[in-house]
Amino acid sequence: MTIACRAFFFLAVLTLPMARAQEWRPPTTLSRLPNGLTVVISEDHSAPTFGMCISYGIGSRLEPEGRSGFAHLFEHMMFEGTPVSPKGVFDRVVESGGGVNNAQTDSDFTQYYESAPVSALDAMLWLEADRMKTLDFSTKNLDNQRSVVEEEVRVSVLNQPYGLFYFVDLPHKAFDRFPNTHDGFGNFKDLDAATIDDVHHFYDKYYAPNNAVLAIVGDFHSEEVLNKIGQYFSSLSSKKTPTRPDVSEGSQTSERYLAQTDKLAKVPALAIGYRMPPRASHDAVVGAVVGELLHNGQASRFYQKLVKDAQVALSVDGGLNFTGSSPFEYNGPVLLTSFIVYPGAKTLEQVLAAYDAAIAELAKSGPSAAELDRIRTKMRSDWYSQLEIPISRAQVLSHATLFDGTFERAYTIPEEVAKITSDDVRHFVSIYLVKINRTVINRVPNTSQKSAAGGSR
User: Fold this and answer.
1) Does the pLDDT value for residue 397 go beyond 60?
2) Whether residue 42 is found in the same domain as residue 148
3) I want to staple 247 with a disulfide (CB 3.0 to 4.6 A). Which of 7, 18, 27, 332 is the partner?
4) In sequence order, which residues have a C-beta less than 8 Å from that of residue 453 and are 6 or more positions away?
5) Residue ranges making up the domain that contains 108
């Protein structure tokens, strides 16, 4: 979720010439408790509220083979209560204190986040420490949340046109190693086979203070909050650090293609994915900018070329790490993805011809100064908007620290984006947006099934 909020201060910064781009860095500190819990604290006295995020080093990419979907399942299990705060207590305490809370499973982390008036701070810290200590492990709770997760798959994937195939199927075709080829929903077979012992073992392995980052932003004094965190979390024991799976991928040497049919779709759609460079590299930042240049709204290259000019597409969406939290928050192989819905009267070849022409033009001429300035300004504005809101800043700080051991990159990304040039874009497109580095899935309506259904009436 992107919170679209602009403050005059940020607009003033962003309207400076890019060569003089300024970095905004609120007071932030990093500490580690003896049990390994990493704590990031950022004071913000703009309102009597706080935002908090705990990110655990377990996401869909990191779950063991045979346990697909467990990271997402645990996102749900964490709300089933504990021996001392039964199911429902967490939400009631948060909401009665004027707060909100939510959770998310991503490829490289699972995060739990809350925001509330500072008067609720002690209660929320106690609740998070309580469920980091243990959960109410019962077959009833497991069966309940397993059913919820599987129903999510039915609603979001199996019974929806296109079935999120750009998220579920594209990585499976584009990558080769298990960590990168399966989606976060998981396999029904793996979920159904899970026992309460399996679930308990998964929790003991990944839900530990030394596998987590707690970031908190708000109207308080850092030393006071650090003391409170120590009070609630220091008694929790560290555990053996889980072994990170090998997520590396070999080079792709040829274009990959898959044809699919869709019984619910009215018109065909394409998913196109290009393998991207490592997150911390300069090229990855260029890739994030390129993703926005090509896909961001009606002014984007693909919308103008495919939808308006060539009229071979009905809609175009996408970007780098399109299905993740942001183009900067991942820690393993990802794709720059395009999701294109196109008219049934057009062919795959016509769509790809217009698509490839738009890429070739960008590789040859690069973006104009005004076009690049618009994208850089928007990306920096969006990032600063996240940093402005306590709950969003807590999330960004937590993720950056989980990946790098420091929060620094949360504050340097706008400066990195500001430095991207037209030559950077041209070089990136010519190296990465090439056919041998991409995977294409063409998903078309299942007309034979529709005809059979029509004939039976």
Assistant:
1) yes
2) yes
3) 332
4) none
5) 27-233
